[in-house]
Each structure stands twice: as C-alpha cells, then as structure tokens.
Design a protein that fits this description.
Elements lengths: L2 E10 L2 E10 L10 E6 L11 E3 L1 H9 L3 E2 L1 H10 L17 H26 L1
Parallel strand pairs: 1-5
Antiparallel strand pairs: 1-2, 2-3, 3-4
C-alpha cells in the first residue's frame, strides 16, 4: 500500500479549508483516509499560527512507515523543519516574458534614437 501525506479539501465554494491526512494513494482526494494529522487554512495571514497545524510526532511516524508527502505538504514540512529543504530549479523564473522583452527593446530604441541628433549638434 502506497501511503501519501496530502491535503483533503473541505470548506465551501471559494472558502477553502484543508485537512492534512495520511491516505492510500489510490483513494480520491477528498475520499477515505487513514488518519487526520493536521489542518491548513489558506485564508488566514501567512504569519498566523492557526494557518498550519500539524501533529509532528504523527508525521514522523507515518514518514517512518514509508508515507511520501505531496509537493505542497513537503513545503509545509520544510518550513516546520521536519524534512530538509529540497533544492528546486526553475531557470525560467527570472526571465522576462514576451511583452516585457518587447517593451525593453522599444525603450532601448527610443533611448538610442534621440542621442544621435544631440551628438551632431554638439559637434558643430
């Protein structure tokens, strides 16, 4: 049985609330789970202590049993210091988009165009 530490959604429409659960990976997202080990409320402020609550002893127990956290739960566990931070690579994160590149080229062209006549008048 492949175990996962994952989020199970609750709450109403546009008001999400998640339970952090241990579940068989074959079960549906909001379906049957083995144990509830915490909660996550994304509507609260990021510095609020009520935003993420986890029973870290149970998390360590289930990870010892072979449970694998999903990406989002893994990030929460990294912040809590349960697992070591994983190196992530997104080489395109800092690259400007297509429109930003076009704007930069236009700005460079405008900056280059007025300089040419100014230099000619200064030479005379």
């Amino acid at each position: 049985m492949a175990l996962k530490l994952r989020l199970a959604r609750g709450g109403s429409k546009k008001r999400p609330f998640y339970r952090i659960v241990v579940a068989d990976s074959r079960m549906p997202r909001d379906g049957r789970f083995i144990e509830k080990i915490g909660t996550y409320n994304p509507l609260l402020a990021k510095d609020s202590e009520e935003r993420i609550k986890m029973d870290l002893d149970r998390v360590k127990h289930w990870m010892g049993e072979g449970a694998k956290p999903t990406d989002r739960v893994a990030r929460m566990l990294e912040a809590a210091g349960v697992i070591e931070k994983k190196e992530r690579s997104n080489p395109n994160k800092g690259v400007p988009g297509k429109k930003a590149k076009e704007r930069a080229e236009e700005k460079a062209a405008k900056a280059a165009a007025p300089e040419a006549p100014a230099e000619e008048s200064a030479a005379e």
